[in-house]
Structure formats: C-alpha cells, structure tokens
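Thread: sanity check for a docking pose with pyridoxal-5'-phosphate

Original post by kr_44:
Hi all, I'm comparing my docking run against an independent structure prediction. Below are the sequence and the ligand SMILES. Could someone generate the full complex and paste the structure tokens? I mainly care about where the ligand ends up relative to the chain.
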Amino acid sequence: MDVRTLVRADFADLEEYAPVKPIEVLARELGLAPDEIVKLDANENLYGPHPAVREAAARAPFHIYPDPYHTALRQALAEWLDVRAEQIVAGAGADDILDIVIRLAWPDAVVTAPPTFGMYSFLARVNRARVVEVPRLEGWELDVAGIASAVRQGATLIFLASPNNPTGNLASVEEVERLCALDALVVVDEAYAEFAGTTFVPLIAEHPNLVVVRTFSKWAGLAGLRIGYGVANEELARRMMAIKQPYNVSVAAEAAALAALAHRDDLMDTVRATVLERERLESELARFPWLRPHHSAANFVLCGVEGRSARHVADALRRRGVLVRYYDRPELRNYIRISAGRPQDTDRLLAALREVEEE
Ligand SMILES: *Cc1c(COP(=O)(O)O)cnc(C)c1O
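Reply from moderator J.T.:
Ran it for you. Here is the predicted complex with pyridoxal-5'-phosphate included:
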C-alpha cells in the first residue's frame, strides 16, 4: 500500500515550518554550555519567567483537564484590556489563534504584506487558501491600495503584524481603519504590542471585522508554555470558541498567564529594560559601517548588511555563541534580525561583531 495516496497530494512538497532549534541542541553542536549561548534569534524574553509565574505554573493541578472556557483568564484579560470577557478567545499561543481564525474564515485567498511573519502563508497553504502577497513599500509601509485591490479580487482575510516581524514598524490607526473598511476579516497580530505601548483593541468596538491577536510569549516570557489570545467582536469570538479544541490551553499555561497579569508591573519593568536595550542596539549597530539598523517598535532590530554576506555574519556570530536570524530572500536581501535582551547580552553581541569585523 502506498500511504501517499491516502493523504493530501498538495502537501507532498510542503516545507516544514522551520522554527528555531532548542538551545541544548545548539549548545551541543557548538560545544558550549547552554548558559554560554546568547540567544538573540527568536525575540524571546531573556529575563526569563517571573518567580511568581514559575511558582503558579508549578502548582497548577495537572491531573485535571483545563477549563475549556478559560473563564478566569478571559475575565482578567477583559479587565486589563477594557473589553468584555465574551470578546476574548485564549489559545496555545498566538499561532493557535491565527489557526482558529483561518479555519473559521475558510478563505479562498489570504493577503499578506511581506516581509512578515512566516506563519501567515504557512497557515494559508495548510488550509488550501491562495496567498496574495502585497509587498510593503518604501520604509516597509503597508501598500493599502494594493491590499484593497487584492480584496476586490476575492481575498477575504488579511494577516498583518504591528509591530511587524521582522521589520519592527507599526501600522497606523488610519491604515488599519482603511483596511477594516474593506470586505474582509482583518487580523492584526500584536505579538509585540507591549514593547510598542500601543494597541488596536479599541478599534474593535467600531469594526466587527477586526481581530487583534496577542500573546504572553514575548513580553511575559512564556514562549515555551504556549499561551496567547484573540480579541474580537462578540459574535466572531463566540464562533472562534465553538471551533477551537476544547483543551487548547494547558492548566499550567492558564495559571502562568494569570500570575503574569497579577505581576504585570514587575514584568513591564523587564519590558522597559528590553526597550532600552533595543534603543542601545539601534545606536551601537549604526556605528558599524557595514550594518544598517532600522528603527523598531518591538524587542528586535532588523539590520541590512552591506558588502558582506548576512549569512556569513550570522554563522560567524553563531561560532562565537551568539545566535541571530539572517534573511536572504527577494523581499529581504542580506539582512539579519537581532533580538534585544539584557545589557550583558548586548555586550556579548557587540564584542562578537567587532571580532567578525576583523575577520
Ligand atoms: C513570535 C510571534 C508570534 C508567535 O506567538 P506565539 O504566541 O508564541 O504563538 C506570532 N506573531 C508574530 C508576529 C510573532 O513574531
């Protein structure tokens, strides 16, 4: 029997989504201890989890199934965001929410604005939706007219990130309102909103087709626990709740998220410290004549590399235990993206860059 005939033929050449390798695996490959690695490749919070959050996750009753309605978490989020609990849907990370939205919308075509987060086109392909790429303009501004034209040609779901990953820039209220006026569901992925200090959540009241997606992965340091949420119009949120997997958020993740909200003032201190490091990165990177850092509103800096190969720079940094992302594709030729961590992480990165410069 040929099992290939029993599964979707259009998946035969689908590439696996390539997430970053676990730190232990990388450390072993490099012959380093895990704590010698400076992990600036996945925009994680290098301050690590808050002690009270760690404690709450450890004490969670794992032997009992989670609350499928996430009652306590949705209530706490509703108070924080000043919306109704019925407008919130929790999931195993922002990625789970994006997956729920695309399955609910079941679009023939999806609009993305590259360069952007890879999950959008991945999810579109898995859901057999055509991906209409409307590239960003000069300064990585959105091509709103281009997106409108894609919607007129049949796309019914728009995925966009603000701040955008990897470019770091924000969409404006005016742009999001123009997109919401189109005949499409507009998903604004705010994975980095806490670093930017702005959100489009208040626009949901006037725009029933707007879904804002948020996560505890980046600002609250819970990437490994998988906890995110969507905020939407109540009718849309109700339908999202109806099709999500009942136990999509683990007991530990919900407990950790509640503890993170209870200690958000402490966590926001690390967010502010990370933003200071990002600003320091922007100015220090600009001193290397072969690097072109771009201003960012998130916890990372995208940097053009000139006169050298970005891939070689990333490899040379990696050999020194410093991990960054590199890009070399049509809409992002020869770039690296560096996450902001603690001051000592920036120090290690800058020392390694100076060595690479001499190579
Ligand atoms: C990191 C990231 C996510 C993933 O969030 P999870 O909550 O960890 O699934 C989503 N969107 C963007 C733009 C990201 O950079």
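The first helix runs from residue 23 to 30. Hope that helps with the comparison, let us know if your pose agrees.
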